[in-house]
Amino acid sequence: MIRVLIADDQALLRGSFRVLVDRSGDCETVGEARNGAEAVRLAAETRPDVVLMDVRMPEMDGIEATRRICRELRLPDVRVLILTTFDLDEYVYGALRAGASGFLLKDTPPAELLTGIRIVADGEALLAPSVTRRLISEFAARPRSERPIPRLLDAVTGREREVLTLIGRGLSNTEIAQHLSLSLATVKTHVGRILAKLDVRDRAQLVIVAYETGLVTVGG
């Protein structure tokens, strides 16, 4: 079972998400938080696989709660899926930089939300199309002088850079394997090594690295 913690300041939404999760057959709710501070505390207590995190909450917002959860060394396997009615640039980039593994809007159909939980629990990145467009726009608008120097990739091999580039373009492991004529196991090994070398949690952060270092460019 995929263990899910729900963080939202609206009781009605928390209840609706709980019913959806608990009726899925392969997911279960392990706690509900009314604000970001509660989410951080309950994440430490329940150690969920996925936190469904609202952005706008009292006491501590979802982005700060995400940052604290993802920086907690005792919670290396907890993934955060941001759910919000807002898809503004500041939330997209802020949430991903804080360590979120995915970002979906609250009007996402229930079946797609459950699929999103499963994808994030499996270590994949999940970005809604509108979110991806805004993320790309964010990098397109930044002067090159503000972007990190690509020395971050010095330890990454040529093949690993190919894999990282395809991750940045949104390809799954299966698609990368087909594109590079590699086995799925080999691709997974490359991804694991890239994560370790770049010291990031999951694929969502790899997407950011791919853009920030110039491996992937807008329209490229």
UniProtKB/TrEMBL annotation:
<dbReference type="Pfam" id="PF00196">
    <property type="entry name" value="GerE"/>
</dbReference>
<dbReference type="GO" id="GO:0000160">
    <property type="term" value="P:phosphorelay signal transduction system"/>
</dbReference>
<feature type="modified residue" description="4-aspartylphosphate">
    <location>
        <position position="54"/>
    </location>
</feature>
<dbReference type="InterPro" id="IPR016032">
    <property type="entry name" value="Sig_transdc_resp-reg_C-effctor"/>
</dbReference>
<dbReference type="GO" id="GO:0006355">
    <property type="term" value="P:regulation of DNA-templated transcription"/>
</dbReference>
<feature type="domain" description="HTH luxR-type">
    <location>
        <begin position="149"/>
        <end position="214"/>
    </location>
</feature>
<dbReference type="InterPro" id="IPR011006">
    <property type="entry name" value="CheY-like_superfamily"/>
</dbReference>
<dbReference type="Pfam" id="PF00072">
    <property type="entry name" value="Response_reg"/>
</dbReference>
<keyword id="KW-0597">Phosphoprotein</keyword>
<dbReference type="InterPro" id="IPR000792">
    <property type="entry name" value="Tscrpt_reg_LuxR_C"/>
</dbReference>
<keyword id="KW-0805">Transcription regulation</keyword>
<dbReference type="InterPro" id="IPR058245">
    <property type="entry name" value="NreC/VraR/RcsB-like_REC"/>
</dbReference>
<dbReference type="InterPro" id="IPR001789">
    <property type="entry name" value="Sig_transdc_resp-reg_receiver"/>
</dbReference>
<dbReference type="InterPro" id="IPR039420">
    <property type="entry name" value="WalR-like"/>
</dbReference>
<keyword id="KW-0238">DNA-binding</keyword>
<dbReference type="GO" id="GO:0003677">
    <property type="term" value="F:DNA binding"/>
</dbReference>
<feature type="domain" description="Response regulatory">
    <location>
        <begin position="3"/>
        <end position="121"/>
    </location>
</feature>
<protein>
    <submittedName>
        <fullName>DNA-binding NarL/FixJ family response regulator</fullName>
    </submittedName>
</protein>
<keyword id="KW-0804">Transcription</keyword>
